[in-house]
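Batch job 17 of 40 flagged for manual review because the log was empty.
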Amino acid sequence: MRIISGKYRGRKLQSSNDLRIRPTTDRVKEFIFNILQDFPENKIVIDIFSGSGSLGLEALSRGATKVFFVDNSPASIEILKTNLQNIKLTDNDYEIILSDALNISQHISHPIDLLLLDPPFIYPEIQQLLNHIFESDFVTDQSMLVIEHEISNPIEQDSDRYEIIKQKKFGRSLVSFLIKKGKEDE
């Protein structure tokens, strides 16, 4: 696993030996950031289910101002810290939050521009989490949410909270790009 582009391009990342953890592949990561293009530049990003930090570190490499890394696994947080130290990022570049994803609004109080989510394939609360996120104050009509989820664990296609603007299948995974529905869309 590595950072694929930007100022930290080519840096290798450590990942967990836990076979239950499924890191985002370089192919999927490249697709996500090719769609986003320059969107992460000068933006505030949150990497929920961050694991080793692959998605958030890619955003930092591509010019994000700050990334909030969120995971509920102390072991994953330790791997993330190792990756952050190896790249030599400063504390101003990131914040680590040890929390369950459903409690994220207790930790974030300002607008987030880009939300990157890579939940476990077996995550039955996926729709509950999306509803919670899109009801929160930190998501604005300028925010973009990208989620990689298993095809057999779909998200609502006709939500009153968000609109799916793009989706692409990668094997068992589906990558979905979502934006908040504005009042005029309801």
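Reviewer: the log was empty due to a logging misconfiguration, but the result itself is present. The CA atoms of residues 3 and 26 lie 8 Å apart. Unflagging and moving on to job 18.
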